[in-house]
Design brief:
With 853 residues, the protein is α+β, with helices and mostly antiparallel strands. Among the domains are: 114 residues, 2-Layer Sandwich (Zincin-like); 133 residues, Neutral Protease Domain 2 (Neutral Protease, domain 2, Orthogonal Bundle); 81 residues, Immunoglobulin-like; 132 residues, Peptidase M1, alanyl aminopeptidase, C-terminal domain (Zincin-like fold). The chain is 41% helix and 22% strand. The chain contains 27 helices and 31 strands. Strand 7 and strand 8 form a beta hairpin. The structure holds (3S)-3-amino-4-(1H-indol-3-yl)butanoic acid and zinc ion (ZN). The site of (3S)-3-amino-4-(1H-indol-3-yl)butanoic acid has 13 residues, from strand 20 and helix 2.
């Protein structure tokens, strides 16, 4: 497959004025008629006539005409990626009409038009529309769509949906018109036997919007939270960004078979059902939180993505980084901002730092790809959001808002680039952002080194920055780092605080102070860097007790724990344990925050820390030491664990709000401590038996399974929920991720042989194979290589059906160079076995190729 390069970008030869699509649905023989008004792109007209090149994959062309005249055989050439009409046969403006046939039922890749349990649905981002009809399938070709859907003859799909406004309908057909020009990747169609949960929203300017969430019959009662999150998102975008919704209706559809979380198709968002459906009995607090975030994210795309889209796929972060940043702001406003920031940093480190440290490292704006689906990454999304957060810090919230206003005003209806985005900020702030722009082109996580000095009443902070080489980028230049800091006096008061703009390779900053301060560095995690700062245990304990910044306070505890888990083994530092006890005892602290302070770093985090200092982590050893520290913390907490557990019962029926969830989280930490000291798991068993909500049940079940207990509970859980796909996914996940290392591989193997391991369904596949490979390092990295073999066997099987999901999971093997020679050899051999498959997909081929490079 060819490599696509940003440097090769050319304006499209032809643009589209409008399109009329007619789809006659049939499981194996859907007919698609496209009437397209093309015209020569004026920006390229002086180059003379050009071939008409249309993308198309897996389409059967039935007929093609230009201005009503069949295109002659010798003027049209078809290949596996599309068709070309010779320039001599292409007028400067014309109507192209093509009829194609496709087979949604056999489309297992879940891209284009496919079927999910009897329901027709589409996924067109990034390049799925070319599997529906021949088209210039690139985001800078935008047009208005009119869509006629004719339902299948057997009447199995009475509900027929597409983008925009419903303009006509009758028995077995519906017509939709989207007044907003959009690229093909935002096209959507859904047809099925569906039910709507409806509500209304009045926009700031007084327009009424019909809100519909479409689900399978029976799922209606599980839509309330998604609807509530949608209405809150709509209001928030009006209040925070001045953005109103722009159609008469906004629809969400829940689909069971879906490669990712959700998709922002104009006016018709399509969601993985796990990010829509929730009830207290079936969904956890974490599920509710994800639903809120993803509903907001997709809704926010209406302005950042749909009204203003990307010129080409290299600019993906233009919409994704910004929309993640916006959804993070929203959740921070709706819940506790401090807790949210820590959760976002944990996610960034677990996914993006990991990506940056391995063979898949790439800039926020990549410069080349083979398969664009492989670039929906943590770097584009999460680091892309961090870059926007830094920009906002640097210019301040008021200027940020002005810049966004200008962005929407200047670029509405356009397909834009990162240069357009940065220009808006330069124009509004008067700043030169050329150095800042390196954040978009330079891969890798910068190391920010800090050294301090106290002499003669002067405190000196010496900062230096380096970024390690990444594939294809051996040399790195300094970046603009906004470094938020505080200097604390011995009574915990703030002597100095502010923001340093650090953009050199090294620089010293100095303050005259009445006493030696304690440095609180990178408050709010103001830049996505790894801090290297030798800090004494006494200062760490001081920050953990006194820092007014909730991020750096938590980070002090985290660095304590990491030092315990990666340094020489022995009794934990009493100062650390004392600090944790103080946290547990402090009723003034938000319970959700206390829960975070009391949780230990994940095994992955510990392994990354070991690898960062040049050692090969032993996943089993990491697991064992983490267990030991859990036990030590539980002992130190002593009776407090029981007191915390008893005093944090949330009264009344379950509610998913942040306060209640925070108390449940804290109570869960207390239960973990109790279970660490109780070989029979009696309190966890009791909680499992008495809980009336899925959060408390899963907390208890997780603890039991992680201790090798819970057989009885697992059986009861399965029999109670065997008809609920989303709940059974949890049943698979808890076992795959938490079964102790001795029996993990055998457990996953046995689960994979079950009839209800419906591996063709991406959620189910991820719930077992994905959860094992990503959530159970000690099991996955078993020294005999059986974990790797098991996962790769399944990846081979899935690849021929669903390359996108396979490639995503294959990237989990990207850490192979971090381990000891034995594990390295085993992982590499498995990657080579995968690479050698004769029919390996382009998606998986690209990932495995990069991993082995
Ligand atoms: N913009 C969407 C990204 C996406 C996707 C979604 C579902 C299936 C396949 C997909 N490929 C790309 C989702 C988002 O970022 O909001
Ligand atoms: Zn997105």
């Amino acid at each position: 497959a060819p490599t696509i390069r940003l440097a090769d970008y050319r304006l499209p030869d032809y643009l589209v004025e409008s399109v009329e699509l007619t789809l006659r649905l049939h499981p194996t023989a859907t007919r698609v008629n496209a009437r397209v008004r093309f015209y020569r792109n004026p920006a390229r007209a002086d180059e003379g006539a050009a071939d008409l090149r249309l993308d198309g994959r897996g389409l059967t062309l039935v007929s093609a005409t230009i201005d009503g005249v069949p295109v002659p055989q010798n003027a049209l050439t078809e290949d596996s990626e599309g068709l070309t009409v010779a320039a001599a046969h292409v007028p400067s403006a014309f109507v192209w009409e093509a009829e194609t046939e496709i087979s949604p039922e056999t489309n297992t890749a879940l891209e284009g038009l496919y079927m999910s349990r009897g329901m027709y649905c589409t996924q067109c981002e990034a390049q799925g529309f070319r599997k529906i009809t021949f088209w210039p399938d690139r985001p800078d070709v935008m047009t208005t769509f009119r869509v006629r859907i004719e339902g299948p003859a057997d009447g199995s799909a009475p509900v027929l949906l597409s983008n925009g406004n419903l303009v006509g309908s009758g028995e077995g057909w519906a017509e939709w018109q989207d007044p907003w020009a959009k690229p093909s990747y935002l096209f959507a169609l859904v047809a099925g036997d569906l039910r709507a949960v409806e509500d209304h929203f009045t926009t700031a300017s007084g327009r009424d919007v019909l809100l519909q969430i479409w689900v399978r019959p029976g799922d209606e009662p599980r839509c309330a939270y998604a609807m509530d999150a949608l209405k809150r998102s709509m209001r928030w975008d009006e209040e925070t960004y001045g953005r109103e919704y722009d159609l008469d209706r906004f629809m969400i559809v829940a689909v069971d078979d879906f490669n990712m979380g959700a998709m922002e198709n104009k006016g018709l968002n399509i969601f993985n059902s796990r990010f829509v459906l929730a009830s207290p009995e079936t969904a956890t607090d974490a599920d509710y939180k994800s639903i809120e975030t993803i509903i907001a994210h997709e809704y926010f795309h209406n302005w950042t993505g749909n009204r203003i889209t990307c010129r080409d796929w290299f600019q993906l972060c233009l919409k994704e980084g910004l929309t993640v940043f916006r959804d993070q702001q929203f959740s921070a406003d709706e819940r506790s901002a401090g807790v949210k920031r820590i959760e976002d940093v944990l996610r960034l480190r677990a996914t993006q730092f990991r990506e940056d440290a391995g063979p898949l490292a790439h800039p926020v704006r990549p410069t080349e790809y083979i398969e664009i689906n492989n670039f929906y990454t943590a770097t584009v999304y999460e680091k892309g959001a961090e870059v926007i957060g830094m920009l906002r810090r640097l210019v301040g919230p008021e200027v940020y808002r002005k810049a966004l206003d200008l962005y929407f005003e200047r670029h509405d209806g356009q397909a834009c680039t990162i240069e357009d985005w940065l220009r808006v900020f330069e124009n509004v702030s008067g700043r030169d952002l050329s150095q800042f722009a390196r954040w978009y082109s330079q891969a890798g996580t910068p190391r920010l080194k800090a050294e301090t000095d106290w002499a003669d009443g002067k405190f000196t902070l010496r900062l230096s920055q380096t970024t390690p080489p990444t594939p294809g980028q051996p040399e790195k230049a300094p970046l603009v780092l906004p470094v938020a800091f505080g200097l604390l006096g011995s009574d915990g008061s703030t002597l100095e605080a502010g923001l340093l703009e650090f953009s050199e390779a090294e620089r010293a900053f100095g303050w005259e102070l009445p006493e030696r301060p304690v440095l609180s560095l990178l408050r709010g995690f103001s830049a996505p860097v790894i801090v290297e700062h030798e800090i004494t245990p006494a200062d760490r304990a001081f920050l953990l007790a006194h820092d007014s910044d909730s991020f750096t306070r938590w980070e002090a505890g985290r660095s304590f724990a990491l030092a315990e888990l990666t340094g020489p083994e022995g009794e934990p530092d009493p100062a650390y344990l004392a600090a944790l006890v103080a946290v547990a005892d402090d009723p003034a602290l938000d319970p959700a925050y206390r829960a975070l302070l009391l949780s230990l770093p994940s095994e992955d985090e510990v392994m990354a820390q070991i690898a960062a200092v040049g050692r090969a982590p032993d996943p089993l050893e990491v697991w064992r030491r983490r267990r030991a520290l859990e036990t030590a913390v539980a002992r130190a907490l002593g009776d407090r664990a029981r007191a915390l557990y008893d005093s944090n019962v949330v009264p009344g029926p379950y509610t998913p709000d942040a306060d209640a969830a925070g108390r449940r989280a804290l109570r869960g930490r207390a239960l973990a401590a109790l279970t660490a000291l109780d070989p029979a798991g009696s309190v966890a068993r009791a909680q499992y038996a008495s809980a009336d909500n899925m959060t408390e049940r899963m907390t208890a079940l997780s603890l039991l399974v992680s201790r090798g207990l819970g057989k009885k509970e697992l059986a009861a859980f399965h029999s109670e929920w065997r008809h609920d796909r989303l709940v059974i996914d949890k049943w698979f996940t808890v076992q795959a991720a938490l079964t102790p290392p001795e029996t993990a591989v055998e457990t996953v193997e046995a689960l994979s042989r079950r009839e209800d391991f419906d591996w063709r369904n991406p959620n189910r596949f991820r719930s077992l194979i994905g959860a094992f490979a990503s959530g159970n390092p000690a099991g996955f990295h078993r020294a005999d290589g059986s974990g790797y073999r098991l996962v790769v066997d399944w990846l081979i099987r899935l690849d021929s059906l669903n390359p996108q999901t396979t490639a995503r999971l294959a990237s989990l093997l990207g850490t192979w160079r971090m381990f000891d020679p034995g594990r390295q050899a085993l992982m590499k051999a498995e990657l080579e076995r995968l690479a050698a498959r004769p029919d390996l997909s382009r998606d998986t081929g690209e990932i495995v190729g990069r991993l082995l490079r």
